[in-house]
């Protein structure tokens, strides 16, 4: 939802006049589409049918790449916001897009951390560790 807000806010401005916002649009739409694709895969439990693919590793790599892309998109978007814009509503939307890009970046960094823990198997709790210790 946050990624959708980023590209919707940028798309509602005259982003085509500034090359920096083209990068932000590319990153936000590309990552949003891939995120929706992974969501559908997990929602329909298709990862169980393709058991050969190491899904925790794939998800961790995707989240890491999305984090790096959103870091660049956030910095680009925030640096390109000009408070002296001749269209005040463009400034407000671009500033809001920068804020939401920051939130999306933080979300993908957190997802990368949790994906790494899932990939390494560090997500076990006390109950599962006791069962495997005594079994």
Question: Describe it for me?
Answer:
Belongs to the MAL family. It is found in: Apical cell membrane; Myelin membrane. Residues 1-120 form the MARVEL domain. This is Plasmolipin. One of its GO terms (molecular function) is structural constituent of myelin sheath. With 135 residues, this protein is an all-alpha fold. The protein folds into three domains: 1-51; 54-82; 83-134. 76% of the residues lie in helices and 0% in strands. It is built from five helices and no strands. The protein has helices at residues 2-11, 19-43, 55-80, 88-120, 126-134. Helix 1 (2-11) runs antiparallel to helix 4 and helix 2 (19-43) runs antiparallel to helix 3. The radius of gyration is 19 Å and the shape is elongated.
Q: Which band does the percent of strand residues land in?
A: under 5%
Helix/strand-derived category reads mainly alpha
Distance from first to last alpha carbon: 43 Å
Q: Mean of the pLDDT scores? A: 84
Helical content stands at over 70%
Q: How many separate helices? A: 5
Quick structural overview:
This protein has 135 residues and is an all-alpha fold.
Spell out the blueprint of helices and strands.
Blueprint: H1 2-11, H2 19-43, H3 55-80, H4 88-120, H5 126-134
Pick out its properties:
MARVEL-CKLF_proteins, 5 helices, cell membrane, 0% strand, 3 domains, structural constituent of myelin sheath, MAL, transmembrane helix, mainly alpha, 135 residues, single chain
């Amino acid at each position: 939802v946050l990624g959708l807000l980023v590209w919707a806010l940028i798309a509602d401005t005259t982003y085509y006049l500034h090359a920096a916002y083209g990068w932000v649009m590319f990153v936000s739409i590309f990552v949003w589409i891939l995120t929706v694709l992974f969501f559908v895969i997990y929602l329909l439990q298709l990862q169980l049918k393709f058991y050969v693919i190491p899904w925790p590793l794939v998800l961790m790599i995707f989240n890491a790449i999305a984090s790096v892309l959103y870091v660049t998109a956030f910095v680009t978007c925030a640096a390109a916001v000009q408070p002296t814009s001749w269209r005040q509503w463009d400034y407000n939307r671009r500033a809001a897009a920068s804020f939401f890009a920051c939130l999306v970046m933080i979300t993908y960094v957190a997802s990368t951390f949790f994906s790494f823990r899932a990939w390494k198997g560090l997500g076990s709790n006390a109950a599962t560790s006791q069962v495997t210790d005594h079994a």
